[in-house]
Amino acid sequence: MTQTHPLAEAAYAFFSHARFARALSLITIGSALGAQMLRSLLGPAGLSAVFIAELLLTAAMLLARRRVVKWSVFIPVSLAVFLGWLVLSSVWTYYPKASIAGISSQLTFTALALGVAATRDTIQIVRAVGDVLRVFLAASLVLEIFSGVLIDTPIAFLGIIGNLMNGNGIQGIFGSRNALSVIALIALITFFIEWRTKSVTRELSIWSMLGAAVCLYLGSSPVGLVTLLGVGFVAVLLFILRTMEPAARRGAEIGVGIAGVLAVIAVWVFRGSVLEALSNSGPLQYRLALWSEEWRLATMKFLDGWGWTGLWPRKTQPFTVMNSGSGDVHYSGLNIFLDTWLQLGLVGLVLLLMLLGIAFTRSWALATAKKSEIYLWAPLVLSTLLISGLAESNALTEWGWFFVVLIVARTSAELSWRRTKD
User: Fold this and answer.
1) Where are the domains of the chain?
2) Helix, strand, coil shares of the chain as percentages rounded to 5?
3) Distance of CA 163 to the CA centre of its chain
4) Tens of pLDDT, residues 37-71
5) pTM of the entire structure?
6) Which 3-state string (H, E, C) describes 243-284?
């Protein structure tokens, strides 16, 4: 019988231990949500070093747990196909260096999210996300008070302008008021689920929800407000459907689905009138100008797109064409669907819609059929990313994409056809 080396046994015990998996999940989620802050503090090279170290630790953990991880379930076909097309876009890209960097970033966040999803169940993920967001939102409020009240000076390297007292919207450590508002809404959902599932004490849940609500309010983001209303509507629907009998619920869900499709068709048909009615909004005018230019450039590379970069490089065509007349620099298309069409063409957009559609359908089915309220987290967070994705591209890169992959992987683990077959 072959004797295992004591050092190998110790390494196996360390990397396969549940405490290591929990600690690594906290570090990984924290670095994903804090990527903007880490980039400001460490620079691009330092940020890359952090993620490389996390990838190595994740690989060691998965190697130690290889006998219990079912990768056929945790890597959905829809995700693999979309990523395959994304990587393939490097063949025809017009900016190979930027494309390689963008693809590497996308695959890194994907691998880290899959590592968390493979080793932690949904309640453990919600707890980890809640713990990280409590710290990050508290840090954001402290820094905003320090910048806007105590020293009355921006903290430029963190992107904090110091708007706490003038009502123009705070950014926290997330780089923009829109990002802060969306993350605060995800935090509010997470803290609510913790409260309903009694994962933390009642007092901690209440204070956490209050803090998230304050951050959402101080963000003063129109995107955050619209997203809040949309997610609130989705939450009400889910709670109503969960109270119905299975037979009645099926009919109600079909009715909701048909109404949703008709609403989308109506908005598309009357999009001119809708945009005209909203055209007095400054933020919307800003986006309409960008979307018009995106549409023009996307149609030039209709099927395959210009090549993936994720976040837009500053000095690369065709992205420099879309800088606004005011001198602002766009780092994304401010719409996940147009942004994907621009970079990956119509084929990439269809693959993204399939990926998101399957994930949302699975998460919705779990939320309405399962008794535990933990299953509400995935559809509500995914709804937050999709609704805000109409005016921001956070869901395509870094922390937003990390959450998308987490939800895709966990819902696949619960409802994959391959799981049923096994």
Assistant:
1) 13-421
2) 75, 0, 25
3) 25
4) 999 899 989 999 999 999 999 999 998 888 777 66
5) 0.92
6) CCCHHHHHHHHHHHHHHHHHHHHHHHHCHHHHHHHHCCCHHH
